Amino acid sequence: MTRLPLLIIIGLIGISNVFANTLEKSLYIISDSIQTVDSLLVPYLSFNETDSYTKDSPIITLNYGDTLKLWVYNLDSISHGFAIKEVSGNYTIPAGDSVYVEQVFVDEGLYIYHDTEEYQKNTYLGLAGMIVVNEVNDHNFYWNIKEHNAEWNFNLTEGLAVDWENYDPKYFTINGNSNPHINTDTLARITGTVGDTIYLNIANTGLSIHSMHFHGYHAEIMFSSLHPTHQGRIKDTFPVYPMETLRLKIVPHQAGEFPIHDHNLVAITGNNIYPNGMFTTILITP
Ligand SMILES: [Cu+2]
User: Angle at Cα 58 formed by Cα 55 and Cα 59, nearest 5°?
Assistant: First the structure.
C-alpha cells in the first residue's frame, strides 16, 4: 500500500535532479580604484572572476534548484566579510585567506552578494554584486546601480570616519559606468525589437533611493525583494531602495530610442557636470 506514494516521491526527486545543475565559481576581492567622469581616480573594491582587477562585480546566473559552489578569495590586505543577502550565513575572510560557500537556490529572484564586514563601509566601496535565479531565457539586461561621494572613498580607505547620516553623493553609476558610457555596456544598454519580451534585473547596492524613469515604454514588476506586493504593477517610474533588487519586464510596442534616467535629477550629473550619471537610452528596432 505504501509502495505507490514512495515511487511517486522517488519519481519527483528524479525529475528535479534532471534539471538542477551545479555552478562552480570563484570570486577574488581586490582593492583598486574607479575613475570618475572628471578623471579622478577614487579608491574602490570589487569582486573579480580572476585575480586581475575590473571594477564590475560579476553577475552570477542560476536556475531554480541549482547549487552554487563558490570560493571567495580575499586578495586585499585587510579582513573582509561575505554573505548572500537573506540567503547565506555571514563569513569572515582574513586577508590572504578564502572561504567556501555552498548554496542551493530554491526560490527564484534576484539576490545581492556583498561584504558584510563593517557594513556599510565595504559594500559602499564597491563589494556588492548580483545573483539572478530563474532567469527567463529571453532578453536580459543587468543594472548594478550605485552612487559615490569620492571624498568618502578616500576617507574610508584611510580608516577615517564618515558621517553616514549626511551623505552627499557626487557620482552616479550603472555597472560602474555613467552617461555616456552606460550605452556601450551591452549588459546594461537595453536593445531589442518591437514585441520582444525584455527583462531588466536591477540591484541597488548604493545608499540612496534611485527612481528610474522610462520614457517611451511601461514596464511590469516581476519581482521585488523589498516590496513583494508591488509584483504585477505596470508603470514607468520605479523607486529602487538601497539593497533592494527588482526585476522588470518590458514588451516594446513601438520602435525608437528613448531616455531612461534617475528622476532625482542630481543623479544625472557627475560632480555637477550634466548630462552624466544614471542616464542611458533604450533602443528598439521595428
Ligand atoms: Cu524622465
Answer: 135
